[in-house]
Amino acid sequence: MQPGALGDVPERKKSASDRKGRKMKYGYLYYRKGLLEHKKERPMNLGDPIQSMAVLGILRKIGIQEEDIIPVDRYDLAVYKGEKVILIVNGIEMYEHYAYHTRFLPVSENIIPVFVGIHLHRELTEEELASFREHQPVGCRDEFTVSFLREKGIDAFLTGCLTLTFPRRQETAAQNKVFLVDCPETVPQYMPEELAKDAVCLSQIIRIKSESESCRLTDGETDYYLKTAEKQLYRLRDEAALVVTSRLHVATPCAAMGIPVVLVKEVFDGRFRFIDRFLPLYTPEKYGQIDWRPNLCIGEEVKEEIVSVCRCLIGLAAGRE
After folding, report:
1. Is there a contact between 128 and 106 (Cβ–Cβ < 8 Å)?
2. Cα Rg for the chain, rounded, in angstroms?
3. Taking the CA of residue 299 as centre, how many other CA atoms within 13 Å lie in the half-sphere pointing to its CB?
């Protein structure tokens, strides 16, 4: 990707701390999941906290101090009553409005949102559209979302997924395993025997049995959720020679870290209309064509540009405070 390919970003303005003599807080989304009624548990995708990890890394890269970084509950953006915060709002919004009693938009008056790396795939209310217009431009994870928002008159541009900013790993002799992460069951039959025979199967979906007295995970359980995602991602970083997966938030951070990745899925939807610039997308009719020795590289210039976009949008948000 060439510099500038992510779109034109407004010039950075002075931060709120520069202008008003006080320090602004900067936030990342904290996925304190809701629980299935009467069961106190539910399936949870480790991709969500992996996105939290990516945002934390970006905030640190642009020089935000640890004491100024705070978590903000992803499912309480509309009712948040904490400290005034510039919040990176990334990830996906497809069906949560059906699954939760709280709302995604419009955000609380105590939140200054920075929409970057976001995917949308549902109809938006007029109130939600007004919130996007108030806080535009909107950085989108994929081309599908760019088109979706532009059709509604919102200034949107392409950023890609923020998990593409994970740092490249150091190569070691211990990185010698093949991992199948939520891999379609027919794929291994196409693999060379030497890769398939000792492959390790993992899943990005976990279940947590909660002790919460409310309809949400406790803070401790949410921290466990984040640590579980971190542990699995770092296992791939430290042990993988190859990762075969159907999961976007396995493929993107692994590719960013320099791990060879094969991305396979029955059907690819609009969420994948960015990663296809870097990885082939293999559907069943192409399984016989898979390159099992992929040589891919997410260039450091791509990571730097995404971080620069976040820096500029945060500066713009601070100028609105």
Report:
1. yes
2. 20
3. 8
Q: Hey, what long-range contacts does 131-134 have (CB within 8 A, 24 or more apart)?
A: 131/105, 131/106, 131/107, 132/105, 134/106
Residue found by looking up tokens 């760019």 in the block: 146
pTM strictly above 0.70: yes
* pLDDT per position as a tens digit, 78-96: 889 999 999 999 987 654 5
Token pair of 285 as six digits: 């009719």
CA distance 312 to 321: 15
pLDDT band at 127 (very low <50, low <70, confident <90, very high): confident
Instruction: Name residues whose C-beta falls within 8 Å of residue 242's C-beta, 6 or more positions apart in sequence.
Output: 178, 179, 195, 259, 260, 261, 262, 292, 294
Sign of CA dihedral 215, 221, 227, 229: negative
Whether residue 10 is preceded by a cis peptide bond, meaning omega within 30 degrees of 0, is no
Quickly count: other Cβ atoms within 10 Å of residue 16's Cβ.
21
